Amino acid sequence: MASSEAGPKYLAVREALRRRASALPEHTLLPPEPVLCAEYGVSRITLRRAVDGLVADGHLIREQGRGTFVSRPGIRHEYRESFVHRIAGFHSVMTEQGAQVGTSVLTQRVVPAAPPIATELGVGTADDVVELVRLRSVDGLPNHVVRSFLPATRYPKAATEDFSHGSLYEFLRREYSADLAHARIFVDVGTAAADEADVLQVTAGSPLLVVRTTVRDTSGHPLVHSFSRLRPDVSQVEFEVSVGGR
């Protein structure tokens, strides 16, 4: 049986331990498990699950026979999409900054639009959309999984294009002269499902940043809807806002 503690409680302990570790010098030895269990009021199973996630993310390190020590995660990579002077996607912006961006296509298919996607794209639920799921990495480290949806009748080549490199936005401009004029962005928090955890190299249930973007043309017609699910330990979201004429 799964303990009732194995859900939100281990995530709360994990976050408390993460904040605690971030305030301590690197290589600081944490108290032993019984002390931490008593301090946080949890079972050893729950504590170990919380610690496992922090070890996987690089905040802690275990040494056999010695204990658990504070570590520091690798260099953070900013997740950037520029919407100031032109709409440029993650690949274009990060490449311009000199980062090595990798892409693995996980899913590429034509499917009926699910109700939330149909609403974002202004199509019917019986209409076909191209679903494109990609794992993006920066300098060899998994960074985020992005799911993009486009109307299949408007962009049929998106179902067969090789997206293992390059930018989806640049593809739309090149192949369809797409007028990418406006973007609406929402940022939320989610948790990693088992399949996402596997490809992002985190523990299932780990917190993720969720960035939802709908790009429209100058007339306000939606062209593409995407949502990216990011590892918060190796990425951060940056917004830059420019007021025209000022």
TrEMBL record:
Matches recorded under Gene3D superfamilies: Chorismate lyase-like (3.40.1410.10), Winged helix-like DNA-binding domain superfamily/Winged helix DNA-binding domain (1.10.10.10)
InterPro entries linked: Bact_HTH_transcr_reg (IPR050679), Chorismate_lyase_/UTRA_dom_sf (IPR028978), Tscrpt_reg_HTH_GntR (IPR000524), UTRA (IPR011663), WH-like_DNA-bd_sf (IPR036388), WH_DNA-bd_sf (IPR036390)
Keywords for this protein: DNA-binding, Transcription, Transcription regulation
SUPFAM superfamilies registered for this protein in UniProt: Chorismate lyase-like, Winged helix' DNA-binding domain
Limits of the HTH gntR-type domain: 7-73
GO molecular function term, any single one: DNA binding
Domain of life: Bacteria
Classification via CDD domains: WHTH_GntR (cd07377)
GO biological process: negative regulation of DNA-templated transcription
PANTHER family documented for this protein: MANNOSYL-D-GLYCERATE TRANSPORT/METABOLISM SYSTEM REPRESSOR MNGR-RELATED, MANNOSYL-D-GLYCERATE TRANSPORT_METABOLISM SYSTEM REPRESSOR MNGR-RELATED
Name recorded for this polypeptide: GntR family transcriptional regulator
Taxonomic source organism: Modestobacter caceresii
Source organism phylogeny: Bacteria, Bacillati, Actinomycetota, Actinomycetes, Geodermatophilales
